[in-house]
Amino acid sequence: MLKDLNQYGARIEGLEKLRIDEPIYLMLPGLQPKLAFVVWSRERVSGLEFEHRLHDDVFERLVSEFAIRHYREGHAPKLAPVRHAA
């Protein structure tokens, strides 16, 4: 599962520990599979670096069309209620 994204790479969760430099094809909405390489990995979390960075316009479109819309549609993480000391 994609957890973080920038123009240069991503953080994914859910796969077993991956090998450093292992190639991964990341599927991003509206794009061809994006080749990335594992730069760090521990347990079920890994950091990827894209072979070619995402163009700024492509990244901006991904964020505005998918991440922000997902947040606005009520899929944002629920925050715990704030407790005040008595």
3D structure, described in words:
The protein has 86 residues and is α+β, with helices and mostly antiparallel strands. It has one domain (2-75). Helix content is 23%, strand content 33%. The protein has one helix at residues 56-75; strands at residues 2-5, 9-13, 23-26, 34-42, 45-50. Strands 1-2-5-4-3 form a five-stranded antiparallel beta sheet, with no helix packed on it. β4 (34-42) and β5 (45-50) form a beta hairpin. The radius of gyration is 16 Å and the shape is globular. The protein starts with a strand and ends in an 11-residue tail after the last helix. Residues 76-82 have low confidence and may be disordered.
Topology diagram in text:
Layout: E1 2-5, E2 9-13, E3 23-26, E4 34-42, E5 45-50, H1 56-75
Antiparallel strand pairs: 1-2, 2-5, 3-4, 4-5
Total strands? 5
Largest sheet at a glance? 5 strands, antiparallel
Give the end-to-end Cα distance, rounded to a whole number of Å.
41 Å
Unreliable sequence segments: 76-82
Order of strands across the widest beta sheet?
Answer: 1-2-5-4-3
**Helix residue percentage:** 10-25%
Number of helices: 1
Helix/strand/pairing category: alpha+beta
Shape type: globular
Give the C-alpha Rg: 16 Å
Return the average pLDDT rounded to an integer: 84
Estimated share of beta-strand residues? 25-35%
| SSE topology string | EEEEEH
**What is the domain tally?**
1
What would you call the quaternary organization?
single chain
Give the key terms:
86 residues, 1 helix, 5 strands, globular
